[in-house]
# Entry
Amino acid sequence: MHILKIEHLTVSVNDKLILNDFSLEIKSGEIHAIMGPNGTGKSTLSKVIMGDPTYKIINGSIYYDDVLLNDLTTDERARLGIFLGMQMPLELEGVTNADFLRTALHIKEGTNFKLFNFIKKLDNTIEKLHMHKDIVHRVVNKDFSGGERKKNEILQMYLLEPNMVILDEIDSGLDVDSLKIVGDTVMEYYHQEKLGILLITHYQRLLDYIKPDFVHIMINGKIVKSGDSSLVSKIEESGYNQLINENN
# Structure
């Protein structure tokens, strides 16, 4: 059992308050979805969890199991088993997908790394995600379509085998068919590993495939309402305006 615990987190960037007394707890075997209007701090949350130095923690704590994350570097957090599927994945000039994944997995597994097992799993996952086989020889995310970039994040997730996953708008850039492939692949991994998942999304369509146990609505940098998946339908019908007015 792993637990990601965020306690009373207040965060700023360029002296602007983004997260405001934010608290959330995610356990292994749980899927939490966070929704909310633009600019409310959803992507900031994912970056702060992973240790982006752009953001300043003014108050509060982030724990993974019994480890305080506040002052750990991004790679130290990743080594603990936390993975972020980014909203806007970056290009890594001069580095192929195969080199990137092999190096990352070799660092993680050390002397247990087996090249044959890596190649086999890489090929199987590429097939599962309906990606072109030449994707392994291409520079990471260079000239990738939006859908290819998002599938590439899920490919990394499968190879690195984290036990706590944050997916920041993984649905953006995906067409209907790719959305189903990505959603089904994430759920397959979830059932295999019984990991914890934090989904950040604007749209109900992703939650048709990755079904959350808990839905949280975020306004002005904090959670203002939580519920089960039925909360998504209510937001689709009435929008966020009422909650925004209540929290102003």
